């Protein structure tokens, strides 16, 4: 795991995610590798107790926390007050449609939204949702675009990033379509993706 993580880090991504949800096939355990500080380490949690998140932030040097479960605005606020410098990403699952009214209670308690495809698991399902839905995005908060993004989506991403609804899209989040097996990233595919999007 650490060798592959360091190979991914050598590609200089802006963010690198570590999943701290035990049922996941990508669950991260063991010692956190020494990653350059310019790569922001993101801890991914699903309805974890506050104490667990605080412990991982401290021991793993996380700069962002991704809330992938049913965390409430009050929980995000509590986390923010406990660690004021941490950046919080709140994940919302999208399928055929989405009620953007769900965002309003989180406006003051998180730093980013992440839109992922709704599936059987909280993330890593390998399917993209209809990005046209983001034409209705009502916020000015930056967001991550996720969900089944692979090399075959490059043309779609380029078109999307030139559209008005991409104004606040700050990060393209990739995962399962760049894996040879869960947790093992294909470095050649990631290199190609990065080069194509330059």
Summarize the SSE layout with pairings.
Elements: H1 2-9, E1 15-19, E2 40-45, H2 50-60, E3 64-67, H3 73-82, E4 87-94, E5 112-117, E6 143-145, H4 154-161, E7 169-172, E8 179-181, E9 184-185, H5 187-197
Parallel strand pairs: 1-2, 2-3, 3-4, 4-5, 5-6, 6-7
Antiparallel strand pairs: 8-9
CATH architecture group name: Alpha-Beta Barrel
The N- to C-terminal Cα distance equals 27 Å
Q: Give the amount of beta strand, in percent.
A: 15-25%
Query: What global shape is seen?
Result: globular
Structure description:
With 198 residues, the chain is an alpha/beta fold. It has a single domain (2-193), classed as TIM Barrel (Alpha-Beta Barrel). It is built from five helices and nine strands, in the order H-E-E-H-E-H-E-E-E-H-E-E-E-H. Strand 8 (179-181) and strand 9 form a beta hairpin. The protein is globular and about 40 Å long. The protein starts with a helix and ends with a helix. The model has no long low-confidence stretch (mean pLDDT 93).
Using brief descriptors, characterize the structure shown.
198 residues; 21% strand; globular; alpha/beta; TIM Barrel; two-stranded antiparallel ribbon
Quick structural gist:
With 198 residues, this protein is of the alpha/beta class. The chain has helices at 2-9, 50-60, 73-82, 154-161, 187-197; strands spanning 15-19, 40-45, 64-67, 87-94, 112-117, 143-145, 169-172, 179-181, 184-185. It has a single domain, classed as Aldolase class I (TIM Barrel, Alpha-Beta Barrel).
